[in-house]
Write a structure and sequence with these properties.
Strand content: 25-35%
Order of helices and strands: EEEHEEHEHHHEHEHEE
Structural class: alpha/beta
Bound molecules: adenosine-5'-diphosphate
Helix content: 25-40%
Distance between the termini: 23 Å
CATH architecture of one domain: 3-Layer(aba) Sandwich
Shape: globular
Number of helices: 7
CATH superfamily of one domain: P-loop containing nucleotide triphosphate hydrolases
């Protein structure tokens, strides 16, 4: 719980001539933490996530994730970094509709050159863990939103990422499916998965994380740790 997974040091990012999208933002996230990033639309949440994921570079400051200076990576190294260190979950799942559930889940392992058998075994294990094994051969188009998000979470976990990043993971789900995904994220964190969730959904933020970071106009304005949730309290 003590090693930093994310270290942002005085990170600034400005697009064109606009006001800074992020202004001298510093943030340390330690291994095993679950952090929600909250803030109104346009406050800089996606900018922050993109910098952590190496999808964008800061103008000033440094971004270090699991010992990698992400702000210094070129394009190819950045793609490799994402594949090996980061699992990403998106609002609209971003599954490939013409691949089966298993092939979607196994894709990150294929991209890192993991042997086929090993990738398939891990995919089966993850689908079982997430209660999706009976849909292994289905295509995503046949699944509900909540089921698709489970598949997306399985895919994100494929390469055992140091960090799971979720961008509005319940944004496209109804309440029950949203609670289901929230419980899933809570359970993963209880197993030790470091988690950063960008969301407007306060219920999600409070149920599956133990720290909330508020961003307003590109500045981190609040950083609040809540007491650990008792095991089973959110089930
Ligand atoms: P949030 O995710 O909290 O809605 P963003 O990080 O998307 O906020 O945006 C922060 C600010 O940066 C906003 O003013 C937005 O208009 C601006 N911005 C974000 N991305 C770009 C871009 N690619 N080009 C120009 N301005 C951008």
């Amino acid at each position: 719980m003590t090693l930093p997974v994310i270290e942002l040091s005085r990170v600034g990012r400005r697009y064109d001539d606009g006001p800074p999208a992020l202004h001298a933002a510093s943030l340390t996230v330690r291994r095993g933490e679950a952090v929600a990033i909250l803030g109104p639309s346009g406050s800089g949440k996606s900018t922050l996530l993109n910098l952590i994921a190496g999808l964008d570079r800061p103008d000033t400051g440094t971004v270090t994730v699991d010992g990698v200076r992400v702000d210094r990576l070129g394009e190819a190294a950045s793609a490799r970094y994402r594949r090996s260190k980061i699992g990403m979950v998106f609002q609209f799942f971003n599954l490939l509709d013409d691949l089966t559930v298993t092939d979607n889940v196994v894709l990150p392992a294929r991209l890192t050159g993991t042997a086929r058998g090993e990738g398939d075994r891990r995919a089966a294990e993850l689908l079982q863990l997430l209660g999706m094994e009976r849909h292994a051969r289905a295509y995503p188009g046949r699944l509900s939103g909540g089921e698709r998000q489970r598949v997306a979470v399985a895919r994100a976990l494929m390469n055992r990422p140091a960090l799971l990043l979720a961008d509005e993971p319940t944004g496209a789900l109804d309440t029950a499916a949203g609670q289901d995904v929230s419980r899933l994220l809570t359970d993963l964190n209880a197993e030790g998965q470091t988690l950063v969730v960008v969301t407007h959904d306060l219920a999600l933020a409070h149920s599956c994380t133990n720290r909330t970071v508020h961003i307003t106009d590109g500045r981190i304005t609040q950083d609040v740790r809540s007491p650990a949730v008792a095991p089973g309290a959110v089930r």
